[in-house]
Amino acid sequence: MADATFDLTDTYVQLDDGPAARRVEVDERFWATIDDRPELHGGRLVTMMRYTDDWDSWEMHPAGDEIVYALDGAVDLILAEEHGERVVQLRGRMGCVVPRGVWHRGVVHSPGDVLHITRGEGTRHRPL
Question: Which of the four CATH numbers 1.10.10.10, 3.40.390.10, 2.60.120.10, 1.25.40.10 does domain 11-127 have?
Fold first, then answer.
């Protein structure tokens, strides 16, 4: 199935700490059960999300930094840093690195697709 196509919104890709890139099927419980999937520990998880509304929770990745790259649209990332919140404006074809362990959320100004590359292990969510 190496030549089969997929859509990153419903099939993620796990980039192992080696030569492999594996497709990962996604369902509504994916993030809630990620720690129960040792095959996703280590490496980097590549995902794409279509954002039409503000995020309904904060998230944090304790196992590594996250690359967040807006392919189109306009999203502000709010980072809860040690000295207060910082706003990073992402407009089409702009990205940033969210440091490991920093809680963050998105405010959508214009709907768009956003690429995420992160270590998924230990990902946490908390209400706004």
Answer: 2.60.120.10
Strand partners of residue 76: 89, 107
Q: What is the rounded CA–CA span in Å between residue 49 and residue 51?
A: 6
- The answer for residues whose C-beta is within 8 angstroms of residue 39's C-beta and 6 or more apart is 14, 22
Structure tokens at 16: 């192992």
Query: Which residues of the chain are modeled with pLDDT < 70?
Result: 1-3
Q: Report how far apart, in Å, the C-alpha atoms of 27 and of each of 5, 64, 91, 127 are.
A: 18, 23, 28, 21
Tell me the pTM: 0.92
